[in-house]
Amino acid sequence: xxxxxxxxxxxxxxxxxxxxxxxxxxxxxxxxxxxxxxxxxxxxxxxxxxxxxxxxxxxxxxxxxxxxxxxxxxxxxxxxxxxxxxxxxxxxxxxxxxxxxxxxxxxxxxxxxxxxxxxxxxxxxxxxxxxxxxxxxxxxxxxxxxxxxxxxxxxxxxxxxxxxxxxxxxxxxxxxxxxxxxxxxxxxxxxxxxxxxxxxxxxxxxxxxxxxxxxxxxxxxxxxxxxxxxxxxxxxxxxxxxxxxxxxxxxxxxxxxxxxxxxxxxxxxxxxxxxxxxxxxxxxxxxxxxxxxxxxxxxxxxxxxxxxxxxxxxxxxxxxxxxxxxxxxxxxxxxxxxxxxxxxxxxxxxxxxxxxxxxxxxxxxxxxxxxxxxxxxxxxxxxxxxxxxxxxxxxxxxxxxxxxxxxxxxxxxxxxxxxxxxxxxxxxxxxxxxxxxxxxxxxxxxxxxxxxxxxxxxxxxxxxxxxxxxxxxxxxxxxxxxxxxxxxxxxxxxxxxxx
Length: 499
Description:
2 domains; Spore Coat Polysaccharide Biosynthesis Protein SpsA, Chain A; 18 strands; three-stranded mixed β-sheet; alpha/beta; globular
């Protein structure tokens, strides 16, 4: 079975490909190819000259062979979905193959039933947003739609984190099917979100066209991912013994995922991480910044709430400090909104003090310190004494002010937030070593219980016993979930081992 990856440079330029930075994009290529090559050393790259120069000639990633199918590629139509190039890469294979995305990392080989299957994919998806919205636009705006796509009530797709199989000829037919479909509707391609259409023609059309032609897809994972499900394959903190496969997918822009990616390449393949940094430092535009000197707005949520209230209650904000603004607004709003405003100001005040006082020069990447211990497994971990880390801030609030992953503001949620009754929330402010920024993590009920127990340091076993006593009706998988939390909290630096 040939294992393949594909890289092309849009408009002959480097891009981030959905990651926070170009550095994280290249780190992903390195981690992906290096973990794959441990099990499949004859790794092949379909690329262009820029891809060859960066990945093979400069970074020395472990590709045993390459081809330049993308070098002189000419789009078939204006607005062509970017996944057409991936589909083209599949068609160039003239033997059984598995194509693996560059944001997929593996720590164990694929099982034999995957390597011998006619068609394979990562897992089945159902009614994911980009499938549904693409399909709705296609039905409404495209003049020519294959009969097997008509009248769908649930929209399925085969996730192409891995894709391929022994029936390599099928992918030539799939490419012809997709390109014919797109060319027939080329005047209306812009009526569909470009990213949604790209995903639909690769993954949904793979799913339905294979069924139409009487072929079954063998999935690496037997679960179906539905809209709203938590990402099931992104557990860096469970490496190495509790996780064998990671696919970042839409989490590539998540600051914490980028941090964990950087940590893992630094842990396992440090020489390649240094090569990436050296390469980027040769590009003036992409020089690595080790310390941020950009002044941050320490009260963005308070400011947003004040501006919203300013508009709603018809008064004007001036250049007063945040505390003075709040005092002024409190005289004009109801008690509930006033309490909410004081709560967000207190939240951001505590966050500001922690952020401004944080000493990056003395900060060591926490995962580098704990990785060896966590790697020893549950029996060893259970004997360790843990405590809340001094390198994070834990902030209590009565409303939920934590910015979720990839979220820059709370503008669209302010009305919802202030409409809620006060409750109890706890948010950790976590320093991210690779980007010198801070990530916010809001604890769920189980996490809150564990953190509450650790007001005093104790062994992991003792913490588990105390939680068992407090949860007589606990779920059957409680022990597994408990150790998941411990590993996660220790790895990202919320907890630390006591020496």
